[in-house]
Specification:
By secondary structure, this protein is of the alpha+beta class. It folds into four domains: 143 residues, Glutathione S-transferase Yfyf (Class Pi), Chain A, domain 2 (Up-down Bundle); 66 residues, no CATH class; 166 residues, Neurolysin, domain 3; 133 residues, 3-Layer(aba) Sandwich (Collagenase (Catalytic Domain)), CATH 3.40.390. Helices cover 53% and strands 6% of the residues. The protein is built from 26 helices and seven strands. The strands form two sheets. It has a five-stranded mixed β-sheet with strand order 3-4-5-7-6. A hairpin with a 5-residue loop joins β4 and β5. α5 crosses α6, α7 packs antiparallel against α10 and α16 packs across α23. The relative contact order is 0.11.
Length: 683
């Protein structure tokens, strides 16, 4: 089989990068079947050991098990998220319940759990290194949390629930991808797109041509409710068409309707939580996060919602005043917010963010911004490997080395949007680092930047620049984590901690010695004028009422759905009415400030890994804002600061309690005041 299927042999490429050129869709399912069988044998060998459990005869072989499955899965899921052709989507649908059943066969394995529990109970008597001790603790906690202590009947129920949920979350993602493509907005007359830059029009024409609509312009939709182009389009009807299309995703009758899918997901998650002894899915999820309970999450969200909503109303009044001064005034609507925000920004700060795009040419932002900041801070360098191909022609491969030329791993960048790529931006690993297995990291960043026609530069918005720095923060976390046991590799940390390193990396966007190198005009090479830089810094808190409110609204929706009891979730819930009630409950029901994600396209929580955990961004931002203050107090962009952050936070991966790691870095617990000041919520 190995001779016929490249997935069944170790890759011969550097760093174990999969040989995507040799892999065909038909190879995936047979490879998964073989990998499942192989790990079952490996787990069976552990549980059949007749001697009492030791770290060496239980934990080490457990960490060595499933290597083939991990390799195949990371190879496949990289493709299924970034280049999901119909054939790949069908494989994913077939695979979902199989993967769920296999994972349950390990997580719920009574004999394996007994061995780990035995070690856990005797932990203080064992002579273990800190990482080994934490591995026993986490494996025991995770298996307990997964239901390993249930009786056989309950385990059978749990396995059935998990398999059905895996199928439903895959369906949600598939429906959303189809509907996002179906609802892309077609314009017949370029005059309807007045306000867009040449590169944006070029990308729209390219998208139309790829759909066989030569002579037209297609605006593809972003994952979140708003769209970057809403800030520039002068035609109000065009703004409304794009906004309405975005809000409609997954909520129309037909094959892409996500309402029945998400209702069943919510119901089954609530049933599973009850089976595991929790009042709700939110209680189940937060019990094994740094938050600890839904109450802690709700307290933070409510504390922030009141001043955020107040600031948003103040911003709304300022926007309405601009509209009222026009010859034909009208009430501000959600699709008008971004456009008039830029007018107010221009009036208050003499700043047109849309006009900044020529200073943010993608290649320069990458090399002289993102990479340069990492080099200055950590000493690492990046060299493009044109000899190494990834899973798509647009995906580029870079080799990462330390200052002493020792290797770190590979970084893959997939910048452009396409119909086969899911929305949003993300980081994932193709190969995980582990001293036990002798592997180094291969990580991927995906964005969804519109691709211009050949010969045109890719000019980024400031938001896209922020996204690139943010996702690269995840990539650095994945590259720098240096652990022995693969269970702790890369970004395998608590969900409400994982966004912290990526948010910290955003601070370098405006750092003078970084900004001066990457923010150069694409035609003249002139740096971004210093007065513009000053205006950007002065306006950082501008529109934060809106930004904070739309984020908190989505976080609250996530909590509202997943705080339902099994009984409440069993009722036939009207999705739109539920959303309206939930937003009114927290005071974020302003029609002009829609939630960042409505339920039917909230992929983070209904097809991603953030269910009952979307609060993680703001929870992590408390740490982020506090850490940024530390950098500023200690000299900013220096190797000494970078080494401290790398060694005490990024480098430990998941091998240490994250809050303990933060205290080790900061010298104390994080304080919330820097976050309140950053978002204009302090007073």
């Amino acid at each position: 089989m190995a001779n016929e299927n490249p997935l069944l042999s170790p890759s011969t490429l550097p760093y174990g990068l999969p040989d995507y050129a040799a892999i065909r869709p038909a190879h995936y399912l047979p490879a998964f079947d073989e990998a499942f069988a192989q790990q079952r044998v490996e787990i069976g060998a552990i549980t059949r050991v007749r001697s009492m459990p030791t770290f060496e005869n239980t934990m080490v072989p457990l960490e060595m098990s499933g290597r083939l499955l991990g390799d195949v899965a990371r190879t496949f899921y990289t493709v299924s998220s970034a280049d999901a052709t119909p054939e790949i989507q069908l494989i994913e649908e077939t695979l979902a319940p199989l993967m769920s059943a296999h994972n349950d066969s390990i997580e719920l394995n009574s004999a394996l759990f007994w061995r780990i529990k035995t070690l856990h109970d005797a932990l203080d008597d064992l002579d273990l290194e800190p990482e080994q001790r934490y591995l026993v603790q986490r494996r025991f906690r995770e298996m307990s949390h997964a239901g390993a202590g249930l009786d056989d009947t309950a385990k059978a129920q749990l396995t059935a629930l998990n398999q059905r949920l895996s199928t439903l979350t895959t369906s949600f993602e598939k429906n959303l991808l189809r509907d996002t493509n179906d609802l892309a907005v077609v314009f017949d007359d370029v005059a309807e797109l007045d306000g867009l830059a040449e590169g944006e029009l070029s990308a729209a024409a390219q998208a139309a041509a790829e759909r066989g609509l030569a002579g037209k312009w297609v605006i593809t939709l972003t994952l979140f409710t708003g769209h970057p182009y809403l800030a520039s389009l002068t035609n109000r009807a065009s703004r409304k068409r794009i906004f309405d299309a975005s809000r409609a995703r997954g909520s129309r009758d037909g094959e892409n309707d996500n309402r029945p899918v998400l209702r069943e997901i919510v119901r089954l998650r609530a049933e599973r939580a009850r089976l595991l002894g929790y009042d709700s899915h939110a209680a189940y999820i937060t019990s094994d996060e740094t938050a600890g309970s839904p109450g802690a999450v709700h307290d933070l969200l409510r504390r922030l919602a009141v001043p955020a909503a107040r600031n948003a109303r103040r911003e709304q009044a300022a926007l309405q005043a601009v509209i009222d001064a026009e010859p034909e005034p009208f009430p501000l609507d959600a699709h008008d917010w971004a456009f008039y925000t830029e007018k107010v920004r221009a009036a208050e700060y003499d700043l047109d963010r849309g006009a900044l795009r020529p200073w943010f040419e993608a290649e320069r932002v990458l090399r002289d911004g993102v990479f340069h900041a990492a080099t200055e801070l950590y000493g690492v360098t990046f060299a493009e490997r044109h000899d190494l191909g990834a899973y798509h022609p647009d995906a580029r491969v870079f080799e990462v080395r330390n200052a002493d030329a020792t290797t770190v791993g590979l970084f893959v960048l997939d910048l452009y949007t396409r119909d086969t790529k899911r929305g949003g931006a993300w980081m994932n690993s193709i190969v995980s680092q582990s001293r036990l297995r002798g592997t180094q990291a291969v990580v991927v960043n995906n964005l969804n930047v519109p691709k211009p026609t050949d010969g045109k530069p890719t000019l980024l918005t400031l938001d896209e620049v922020t996204t690139l720095f943010h996702e690269f923060g995840h990539a650095l976390h994945g590259l720098f984590a240096t652990v022995t046991y693969p269970h702790f590799a890369g970004t395998n940390v608590f969900r409400d901690f994982v966004e912290f390193p990526s948010q910290v990396n955003e601070m370098w966007i405006y750092w003078p010695e970084i900004l001066d190198t990457y923010a150069r005009h694409s035609e003249t090479g002139e740096p971004l004028p210093r007065d513009v830089v000053a205006k950007l810094r002065a306006s950082e808190a501008f529109n934060q009422g809106f930004a904070t409110s739309e984020y908190l609204a989505a976080s609250w929706l996530d909590q509202a759905w997943h705080s339902l009891s099994a009984e409440d979730a069993a009722s036939e819930i009207d999705v739109a009415a539920f959303e309206a009630s939930a937003l009114a409950d927290i005071g974020l029901d302003n029609p002009a400030v829609p939630t960042r994600y409505s339920s039917t396209y909230f992929a983070h929580v209904f097809s991603g890994g953030y269910s009952a955990g979307y609060y993680s961004y703001i929870w992590s931002e408390v740490l982020d804002a506090d850490a940024v203050e530390w950098f500023r107090e200690n000299g900013g962009l220096t190797r000494a600061n970078g080494d401290r952050f790398r060694n005490r936070l990024l480098g430990v991966g998941g091998s240490k309690d994250p809050l303990e790691a933060y205290r080790d870095f900061r010298g104390r617990n994080a304080e919330i005041q820097p976050l309140l000041e950053r978002r204009g919520l302090a007073s």
